Amino acid sequence: MEPRFDIFGTETGGKLAKRFAALGQAVHQSSLPVTTAELVNLRASQLNGCGFCLDMHVKEAVAAGEDPLRLHLVAGWRETTVFTEAEQAALAFTEEATVLAREGVSDETWAGVRKHFDDEQVAALVVLVGLINAANRMAVSTGQKGGSYQVGALAAAQ
Fold it and tell me: Is the confidence at residue 16, as pLDDT, over 70?
């Protein structure tokens, strides 16, 4: 199946893509660990069924040195021993902030985030979850498929 629409191939989409990429770059320049950011991107993309973003973030994480075993275990993170307490807090936050039909982010989850991340990192984490959810929704709604992403393509498009 071909993608339904090339949103970034339009003048408006191109302008928005640059601004969207700039937000992502600001998150990656923060003190939020890159590993944590990629785990967050993967978990939200799993929950949203976004093959394009899963493809991208798995490949980028591996290229950055992430252990493939940990990437395979993200969906079942609660039942593993390979994630730090801080990563677990970020993954719990990601799930609750992604699936808002529930109660939203619980006080317990928020307390876990605050325990492990400083104000700058919390700001980056909150924006990151919003960005990956927006990216997932754009990719899924326009029919973007995973499998052909090349490492560094996102950075090259900026």
Answer: yes
Task: Give the rounded distance of the alpha carbon of 124 from its chain centre.
Answer: 12
Task: Find where tokens 């390979």 sit.
Answer: 82
Q: Is position 127 within any domain? A: yes
| Residues 80/28, Cβ–Cβ less than 8 Å | no
**Residue 15, C-beta contacts closer than 8 angstroms, at least 6 positions apart:** none
CATH number of 148's domain? 1.20.1290.10
Q: Give the side-chain half-sphere CA count within 13 A for 149.
A: 24
Q: Is residue 67 part of a domain?
A: yes
Cα atoms in the Cβ-side hemisphere of radius 13 Å centred on 155: 6
pLDDT value at 86 more than 70 = yes
C-alpha to C-alpha distance for 25 and 50, rounded to whole angstroms: 21
| Nearest C-alpha neighbor of 8 from the set 23, 27, 21, 24 | 21
For 136, the domain range is 11-157
What's the length of the chain? 158
In a domain, 38, yes or no: yes
How many CA atoms lie less than 13 Å away from 37 in the CB half-sphere?
Answer: 24
Q: Is residue 1 part of a domain?
A: no
